[in-house]
Specification:
With 149 residues, this protein is mainly alpha-helical. Helix content is 78%, strand content 0%.
């Protein structure tokens, strides 16, 4: 179960990143054009993908032998890898998803098309930056040996 969830979480990361980049680029390009239904759906699918990632990630916290080992060790804040997975990754991802969700909700309430695009652009951009900072990339200490997929 753990391996399947981990692979799903890793694969869905690329879908989420692609949807985030497409949504940000679409909002930047169409900033002063009418806001269409397909643009709203793109932003919504990006947000849904992020929420799905959170649910899979939370499930991973309960079944991951690595997390269980870190918790049993008890020196979470002294171990940089344990601190990354138990504190930093979780909090930054939750913050990023909260920012994206707030941006999507605020954009829906805007009357002007440019304001909707602007809300989605800025909130999703901040969310993407937070997500990129909290992914255990292979070139980081926390992601060493994990690979790109």
């Amino acid at each position: 179960m753990h391996t399947g969830l981990l692979h799903l979480h890793s694969a869905l990361r690329w879908v989420a990143l692609l949807l985030m980049v497409l949504t940000i680029a679409d909002s930047a390009i169409r900033m002063y054009r009418p806001f269409k239904e397909n643009e709203r759906k793109l932003a919504m699918f990006a947000m849904i993908t992020l929420h799905t990632q959170v649910l899979i990630g939370i499930a991973l916290y309960f079944v991951s032998p690595m997390i269980k080992g870190f918790m049993e060790d008890g020196h979470i804040m002294k171990n940089s890898i344990a601190r990354f997975y138990i504190v930093e990754h979780l909090l930054l991802m939750l913050l990023a998803i909260a920012v994206v969700t707030i941006g999507y909700s605020r954009a829906k309430r805007q009357a002007e098309a440019w304001a909707k695009h602007r809300m989605i652009f800025f909130y999703y951009l901040v969310g993407l930056i937070l997500i990129l900072l909290s992914i255990p990339w292979p070139f980081r200490e926390a992601g060493a040996g994990r690979g790109w997929f």
